[in-house]
Amino acid sequence: xxxxxxxxxxxxxxxxxxxxxxxxxxxxxxPRTIDTKxxxxxxxxxxxxxxxxxxxxxxxxxxxxxxxxxxxxxxxSTFDKNKTIWILDxxxxxxxxxxxxxxxxxxxxxxxxxxxxxxFIYDVMNNNLYSAMRDGGAFKNDQKLARLDENKQLxxxxxxxxxxxxxxxxxxxxxxxxxxxxxxxxxxxxxxAALEFAYVAEGALDAYISMRLExxxxxxxxxxxxEAGGITTNIEGEEIGILERTSILTxxxxxxxxxxxxxFKEIKKVT
Length: 271
Ligand code: IPD
Ligand code: CA
Ligand code: CA
What we know:
Blueprint: H1 3-26, E1 34-36, E2 43-45, H2 46-62, E3 67-70, E4 84-92, H3 94-100, E5 105-112, E6 115-123, E7 128-133, E8 138-140, E9 143-144, E10 158-161, H4 175-183, E11 186-188, H5 193-201, E12 207-213, H6 215-227, E13 231-233, E14 246-251, H7 256-263
Parallel strand pairs: 3-4, 10-11, 10-12
Antiparallel strand pairs: 1-2, 4-5, 5-6, 6-7, 7-8, 8-9, 12-14, 13-14
Helix pairs in contact: 1-2, 5-6
The structure holds D-MYO-inositol-1-phosphate and calcium ion (2 copies).
């Protein structure tokens, strides 16, 4: 992707992120149509579909050589990693959207030839747009985010864990979760992976750990965290592919080795 094209695409997508966010805000108090997907707690609403359709329409009309991978299935059916791919979660944190009318985000990552080029995470109700372009730093609205503190210690850290992670499970000894709660300053859960990535990027959280996320939960966040100086891998410390379902550790650069070596050594692969 050449530089001019990438900047033009960034500016265009930025405008569409804001437009899609306004669409959601204008309808925030409308009655909801709530369906379930893989299980009774996996929710989807008419708004998730409307936002994804909005981006699918823009892509088809103005960037028809690009591909879309969207959570709600409005995108392409096959993927060629050598092309430009938009990876979209139209509402990340649908349960929060339904129950709280806040704490959700639109998440869009653009990859070209397998490289993360552009990331946006829009905290719609707070009107905060996190963004990044590869090698261009990370931003919250117009403010460049400071590089993450390279001396951060675990005992002074706030980490984000999904509480299900503390239950007995097939991947990891839940007692590791208990050690983490003991060894850190505090733990949090917000219920939107995209926002949790954004909070790591701005240093409001020092790590976010999830056992299982989908490509659209991760795509934008990992670019934004990287541009703030953070590290994202799976919880075995390995690089993750852009189209993979995977565990995630995204964190301050000084915590990565400690978390992998002292906490996550003995785990099973997510399938
Ligand atoms: C979910 C949220 C949640 C995470 C789940 C995701 P959705 O996304 O990011 O925080 O724990 O794994 O599926 O379904 O609201 O887009
Ligand atoms: Ca999601
Ligand atoms: Ca979603």
